[in-house]
Amino acid sequence: MNTHVMDLKARRSAISVLITRMPLLKKPRQTTQSKSLSTTEEIVVGTLTGVASTAVAHPLDTAKTRLQLGIVGKGGLGKALTNIIKKEGVRGLYRGLAAPVASAGVSCGLTFFAKSLWVKTLRSRLGYTAGQQNNCTLLGAAGALTGTSIAPVVLPTDLVKIRLQAARCKASTSALEFARGLAKREGLRAFTAGGTAGILQLASIWGVLFGGYEFLTRKITAAAGVPTGQRPGVATTIIAGSTVGVVSWSVAMPWDIIKTRMQMDPRRNPSFFGMLRGIIKSEGVAGFYRGFSAVAVRGVVSNASFFLFYEGFRGVLEEAKA
Known about the structure:
10 helices; 73% helix; globular; disordered N terminus
């Protein structure tokens, strides 16, 4: 009996050692504690992160938009990408890239600025002490408020991007040229289409991203024995970033579908609640998840790269300050 118990203990010990030595759970090479960035530094890191991650994920975003609008025929992500390349070449995947890249640079800089302000505000209102770690719920709330705050900047450029991705105009048509033409044809009010759905989408995405990412990285690093306060390693960043990417879009997808259709054709789809009722009546709940395969893959690629770039740029800045 004693021999059997000792054998079980030995096996458990061996398994524990094996798990802690797995590459995904290894402690990051960096051994220094992570330092807080100033608001200006957060803006710089956020701007660089937004530009880089948006450029990486744009082809998948183009496929997502066309699947949601039903203009690439039947099939999933792979067929959508193939059809675009076949008909328009590789350049077709990057149609409308300038608008979201420019928007991402500005909006992500504003995002981290707004997040910093909302975190400070919530900490003050909730009575946090100077050295107290931010609760994940607080970060999620700050993220949702951040998404709402950046909507006036993000949504107009998002509309231009969607119209360009769906348009059959020349691939050389610039975002600025298209925006000018749109303003002449439909007026400045055209850029406000899908505003309600867009705010709900941004609040959902950023709330889940900021709260969920911090929650997962803390859980993974704690399980791996990484000291509290130390930034996560590459594997942890990829796992947490890709996971919250899929979850955030699962929550935001219904609002994104409504926003996309309203931005594409505001005259045909003028009402948020009308669109909501119409989709449920004609397509059911499944109608809110059209093109979800593209969204899920994009969520993995976009958010894994987003947080990788963020942690990378942040690490470079912290080393420069040291």
